Amino acid sequence: MHVTIIMFKFANMETKIAILRGINVGGKRKILMADLKTLMQNLGYENIQTYIQSGNLIFEAGERQQNDQLAENIESAILKQFDFQVPVIVLSKNEIESAIANNPFYTADADINKLHLTFLNKIPEQDKQEQLETVNYKPDQFKIMGKNVFIYCEGSYHKSKLTNAFFEKKLKVKATTRNWKTVLKLWELSRE
After folding, report:
1. Cα–Cα distance for residue pair 105/127, rounded to 1 Å
2. What domain of life does the native source organism fall in (predicted)?
């Protein structure tokens, strides 16, 4: 009698981008990227890539898994393994592509070193957005569009008042920011 064993791979996988806030900054909340990759593999995710030490992941998950649930799973696993909390925001590659296409400051002559994107874990309430739109920190500028805050910083982002803490406090959401070069690289990696 001849037995054939067939291995199946889930055909309906979707590429996701996870952005972790505040790891490996100033010697605090250290997570080696190899350890983070292993943690993701243990959660059952596939084709995991990391990008730079600040906590950027590209991976594949079942297409029916919601971004919020994926973020919660990763946060819980990090807390269990490393004993500290790390906010995580998960996006689809379509969401990051849409953010790139809709950045009002990303023009043909833009200096991308002055551009940043703050990712929010949910769309802020309309009244909070309207209150925030009255704030003026020129020459720095920002524009809220859905779950994204596009930022233009004339000087260094680290000297700007348009920080994660600022947006979290005013909008009552979780936030994490990446410079525009990192945003473009994450999009590029998600397409490989």
Report:
1. 24
2. Bacteria
Q: Which residues contact 139 (CB under 8 A, 6 or more apart)?
A: 154, 155
Residue whose tokens read 């700007």: 160
| Mean pLDDT of all residues in 35-43 | 92
Cα 114 off chain centre by = 19
- Residue 19 near residue 55, CB atoms below 8 Å: yes
Q: What are the domain boundaries of the chain?
A: 13-92, 95-190
Cα distances from 50 to residues 33, 40, 159, in angstroms, run 7, 11, 27
What fold is seen in the domain 95-190? Alpha-Beta Plaits (3.30.70)
So what CATH class is 13-92? alpha beta
Which pLDDT score, from 0 to 100, does residue 172 have?
A: 95
Cβ neighbours of residue 20 closer than 8 Å, sequence gap 6 or more = 31, 36, 54, 55, 56, 57, 74, 78, 86, 87, 88, 176
Whether residue 121 contacts residue 68, with contact meaning beta carbons closer than 8 Å, is answered with yes
pLDDT of 10 reads: 45
Quote the CA–CA distance of 157 and 85 in Å, as a whole number.
24
Whether residue 104 is preceded by a cis peptide bond, meaning omega within 30 degrees of 0, is no
What is this structure's pTM? 0.88
